[in-house]
Amino acid sequence: MTSQYEEAGVNIHAGEEAVDSIKAAVSQTQNSNVLAGLGGFGAEYELTSELGGIKEPVLISGTDGVGTKLMLAVEADKHDTIGIDLVAMCANDVLAQGAKPLFFLDYIGVGQLDPGRVTVLVKGIAKGCKQAGLALIGGEMAEMPGIYHDQDYDLSGFAVGLADKSKLLGSMKVQAGDHLIGLTSSGVHSNGYSLVRKIIADAQLDVNATYDGLQQSLISTLLTPTKLYFADVYPLIQAGQLHAAANITGGGLADNLGRMIPDNLTATVDPASWEVPTIFQILQTAGHVSTSEMRRVFNMGIGMVLIVGDEELTAVQAALDKQQTGYQMIGEVVKRREHAVEYAN
Predict the structure, then answer these.
(1) Distance CA 283, CA 263 (A)
(2) What structural domains does the chain harbor?
(3) Helix 193-203 vs helix 69-76: angle between axes, to the nearest 10 degrees?
(4) Alpha helices in the chain (DSSP H)
(5) Using CA atoms, how far apart are residues 228 and 272, in angstroms rounded to an integer?
(6) Distance CA 61, CA 334 (A)
(7) Could you write out the DSSP letters of every residue in 30-87?
(8) Is the pTM of this model over 0.70?
(9) How far apart are CA 262 and CA 171, in angstroms?
(10) What residues does the PurM-like C-terminal domain cover (predicted)?
(11) If phi over 0 gives left and psi between -120 and 50 gives alpha, with beta otherwise, what is residue 216?
(12) Core-most of 86, 122, 220, 278, by most CB within 10 Å?
C-alpha cells in the first residue's frame, strides 16, 4: 500500500499557495538592506548603511510568542491583529535595551494549513513590523497534524536590533532622583491570558457582550493588539535622553521595572498616579482577584516605563506631548529600601 504525504495530513500545495499569498505583505516591510528574504535557505540583511556613526555596534535580539491569547483568537475566529501582538512582544523588548529594530522572523505552526488564514496572520505580522521599524525577512510555516489539532496554531517570533554600546539603556545608568514615566498601554497586551480565560469560564462572562465602561465587546477588547512603542521611544534613545526603559509584560511593574533598578536603589511607584483601564477592573471584580495579584500578572494600564534623569525630564515630556503619546509621571528612583520596586500604597 502506497502512502501519500497529504493522506498524513500535510498539504504541500496549500503551503506553496500560502507562501505565494504572503509575499506582497512581506515585501512592504523590507528596505534596501534586505538582500534576500523569502525563498532562500536563509535571509540576508546588510548592515553597511546601519553602521554609519556607530563606533561600537552591538546586536540585540529578542524572541517570544503570544501565549494563550491565541486561544481567544481561535475561538473568536479573529486573526488579523494577533500578528501585531507577536511583533510587539519581541520588538518592545529590543527597544527597551536601546536598540534600533532591524529585522524580524516568524514561526507559524498549524494543525491544518489554511492559506487564507495564514495570509491574514502574516498581514498582521507585517503591519506590526511596519509600526516597529522592522523588516520582515523570513520565517517558517509548518503543518504538523497531531501536534496542533484542527484549527489550532502557534506563533513565535525573533527580532534583532542594533545599538551603539555607549547608548545602551540599563540599570548601569539609573541614579537616585531619576523619574519614572509610564507610557499608556493599549489594554491587556499579551500577558496573563491563562488567568483571563479562567475568569471568563468561572464567572461565565459573555465575551460578545459589551460591559459597562467598555467601548466594544469583551472579546474585541481582549484581542486589542499590544502597543508598539518604537515611534514614541526611539527618538528619545537617539537623543540620549533616557537612562533605562522597562517593557511591562508578564510579572507586571514589579518584576519588569525591577530588572532596570540597581541593587542600591528602589523605584517607588504611585498607583494613584494613573487610572486603571476598565478592562482590568472588570476582570478583577469578576474573578475576585486581589489587587496584589492583578499587579503581579497584568500591566494595569502601563505598557512601558521610561527612567529619565532630572536634567532631561522637560525635554522628554515635551517630545511625548508633541507626539501625543499617552503617559503619566508614576514615581521616582530613591535610595534602596527593602525591594527593587515598591508601591506607595
Answers:
(1) 34
(2) 6-167 (3.30.1330.10), 171-343 (3.90.650.10)
(3) 50
(4) 12-27, 69-76, 82-96, 115-132, 193-203, 218-222, 230-238, 252-258, 278-287, 291-297, 313-322
(5) 25
(6) 31
(7) --TTEEE-TTSSS-EE--TGGGTT-SSEEEEEEEEE-TTHHHHHHHHT--SSHHHHHH
(8) yes
(9) 5
(10) 175-342
(11) beta
(12) 86
Amino acid present at 110 = V
Helices (H) and strands (E) in the chain, counts: 11, 12
Return the ∠ at Cα 40 (arms to 36 and 43), rounded to 5°. Answer: 45
Look up residue 25 and give its three cell numbers.
Answer: 505583505
Separation of alpha carbons 87 and 227, rounded Å: 10
**Contacts (Cβ under 8 Å, ≥6 apart) of 278:** 211, 212, 213, 214
Q: Which of 118, 269, 297, 57 is nearest to 199 (CA)?
A: 297
Neighbouring residues of 290: CB distance < 8 A, sequence distance ≥ 6: none
Q: In this structure, what C-alpha cell is assigned to residue 286?
A: 469578576
Contact status, residue 253 vs residue 295, Cβ threshold 8 Å: yes
C-alpha cell at 226: 499590544
